[in-house]
Write a structure and sequence with these properties.
Residues 38-142 form the Expansin-like EG45 domain. By secondary structure, this protein is mainly beta. It has helices at 2-14, 60-63, 107-112, 119-125; strands at 23-30, 55-58, 72-77, 88-95, 103-106, 128-135, 145-148, 158-163, 171-178, 185-191, 194-197, 205-212, 217-226, 235-237. It contains four helices and 14 strands. It has an eight-stranded antiparallel sheet. A six-stranded mixed barrel has the order 1-5-2-4-3-6.
């Protein structure tokens, strides 16, 4: 039991960082938003509908072995003659392997930082100095959704992708069980936002999610998610939304306002 507790503490602690503080870096852009939807998070073309194509690829520490997929950030360029003070909100949908840049943005996100009439001037820069901080994701009345991946092989293998996670946490554990059963089966992160298991319970399925909460974790239970006749490629409403904000030991920087 002590070993499990230590492992859980490491898992939760390593999945959180003080990214709600303001960080300084540089950002570039891809000319095609699709370049940020087909990569390391596994969202595919669905990512293009997440945030009006305001997408980002994050450096490895932000991607966080896939736990950072779907995280939201406020980002702004620091050139006040070209860019607004507010910047824009982006969603992390891919990993950026260029360690000189924390972010590679979609062209729409890159130009969204610009003052009116300055979009082309910002693009001409190619790479700009930016600052960013993590913010909670908000999807209105939309719940956390579950997509059954085509690589699933019913009834012996199930792979699912989680989308539209609100709040400011990471999913670091997933269990699945038949509805009404307490015999939970642990799933593994395949990559990015995709989790899988080769021990698929029969019948309709429920899920529970372990999400970060600073130096602890909490469970979120979705009681009725997949029907017994779940289909490949189908998207299901989990019936719940994750709205929490992980409490991190970031004081005092997380208490400051964006000036």
């Amino acid at each position: 039991m002590a070993v499990f507790i230590c492992f859980l503490f490491f898992l939760i602690s390593s999945a959180t960082a003080c990214n709600r503080c303001v960080h300084q870096t540089r950002a570039a852009y891809f000319t095609r938003a699709s370049a940020l939807s087909s990569g390391a998070c596994g969202y595919g073309s669905l990512a293009l509908g997440f945030n009006s194509e305001l997408l980002a690829g994050g450096v490895a520490s932000l991607y966080n072995d896939g736990a950072g997929c779907g995280a939201c950030f406020q980002i702004r360029c620091k050139n006040k003659t070209l860019c607004t003070g507010k910047g824009t909100r982006v969603i992390l949908t891919d990993r950026n392997d260029n360690n000189q840049l924390d972010f590679v943005l979609s062209i729409k996100a890159f130009t969204a930082m610009a003052l009116q009439g300055m979009s082309q001037h910002v693009l001409d820069q190619g790479i700009v100095d930016v600052e960013y901080k993590r913010i909670p994701c908000k999807y209105g009345n939309r719940n956390l959704t579950v997509r059954v991946e085509e690589l699933s092989q019913k009834p012996r293998y199930l792979a699912v992708k989680f989308m539209y996670q609100g709040g400011q946490t990471e999913i670091v554990g997933v269990d699945v069980a038949q509805v009404g059963s307490s015999n939970w089966v642990s799933m593994s992160r395949n990559y990015g936002a995709i989790w899988d298991t080769g021990r698929v319970p029969s019948g309709p399925l429920q899920f529970r999610f372990l999400v970060t909460a600073g130096y602890d974790g909490k469970w979120v239970w979705a009681q009725h998610v997949l029907p017994a006749d779940w289909n490949l490629g189908a998207i299901y409403d989990s019936g719940v939304q994750i709205t929490g904000i992980a409490q991190e030991a970031c004081s005092p920087c997380d208490k400051g306002t964006w000036k």
